[in-house]
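Appendix B. One record, verbatim.
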Amino acid sequence: MNVYFHTFGCKANQYDTELVRQAFADQGAVLVDDPAAADLAVVNSCTVTAESETKLRRFVRGLARRGAKLETVVMGCAAALDEGRIAGLPSVRAVVAGADPGVVLAAAGMAHARPDPVLRRFHANARGWLKIQDGCDEHCTFCATTIARGANRSRPVAELVQEAQALSAHHAEIVLTGVHIGTYGLDRSSGWTDPGAVPRGSPRPASGSAAPGAVPRGSPRPGSGAADPGAVPRGSPRPGSGAADPGAVPRGSPRPASGSAAPGAVPRGSPRPGSGAADPGAVPRGSPRPGSGSSAPGAVPRGFEGQGVAPGNPGAWPRGRSTLGELLEALIAAVPQVRFRLSSIEATEVDDRIARLLIEAPQSLAAHLHAPLQSGSNRVLKRMGRHWYTAESYRGRLEWLAARLPVFGLGADVIAGFPGETDADHRATLALLEALPFTYLHVFPFSVRPDAAAARLSDECSPAVVHGRARELRELGEAKARAHLESRVGQRADGVVSGHGAGKIEMLTQDYLSVYLPTAEWDGCPRCEVTVR
């Protein structure tokens, strides 16, 4: 069987495709780059915007026009939420919820295979992706990805070290990716060892389904947390939050200044001494730590004290679970020759251990963060359900890091025209973006996702307002990118090969700049020092 693969969406999707591609190759399939030569196309779908799903349907229809023999299996996030629209497209053989390689193989007629859970090589890129976790326990009102991918599930450290060692034989840079990587190791469930979409113990679709892996309408999604009695439904108050309404800020979230006249008073909803909390003295996530030396209120996440030291609050994390910082240290120790890079991570989840690696180990961890902002207005952030940070805590953490990193690549996701966003909210976002040393921005005009809570908000911005604000944000991002590049021209940088073509080699620097070298100037090393030009 000749199989063609195509991926829409994020690095987590790209990783999933590579694992499925490897599973097909291990079963003897021939992998082809031209759909005209294929018997089967496997398309990994994305649901982050309405446009991504439109592109998916257009692409699948285009595949069907190439020839009657070509069948298509659609997997991934949009497939997980499909209620028949994708399944009804021409030449679609099956719709697979999630990305479990075994389920995709079965959908293609290769039953009873036991796919290798360790990715050995990332063929789609000169750099390698390493997916450390899947799913997310937050419920941002604009996001359908959490619904499609389910609850946070972290892979074991030993398995990730083994995979990084395998990838290091082919890649000089490995990017740690996932859906919410800052929560690595903080799973509500008992753990996750299956790199596919469905965690152990989750309900499986009925075996007689015409679309293997598809989830019937109204059924729990794979990994949705349906098997976890402690899961909190989207929009519901968190246990112990004291919330009287779904939009209230849960315990541990950054609070606005209270103006309290009683210093030392415990805010409503905070753990009380003797209350049974694992650590009565713990400071909520996003609050400053005593003795940290941080001048940025809200800069240091919960459970960590003091720059460059180990966690000083062992009660803050479940015993025996690793955090992202600990995973990074294990990976760097096991694969010292590789440069690791973090994909998208929340600014206030860059704890002191990660910060220390960024500052002190630039050869091992690239000085680059992609920190989703979404809005610079606290009012809009609350409506988005992004309760774990404020504009002030976001700014404080990144300013603290930027002051200590001589070279720093900084990107962000921003949503333009979220329902209820006013001109003042938009100006607040522009002001925050202008104040911080961003080197690029990813701007998304707000797109209604039918399965997400924001679809129920009535005060939508007009399309003209949304696109006008998106244009302003993009122009600011382009100006920031030009300024950063101009400041780096002529400087030396740590480059890793990321592509080649037209007689040139593309080198990616630690701060996420692309430098193009004529092939004649390249010494053949996958990683070398380059001059930014």
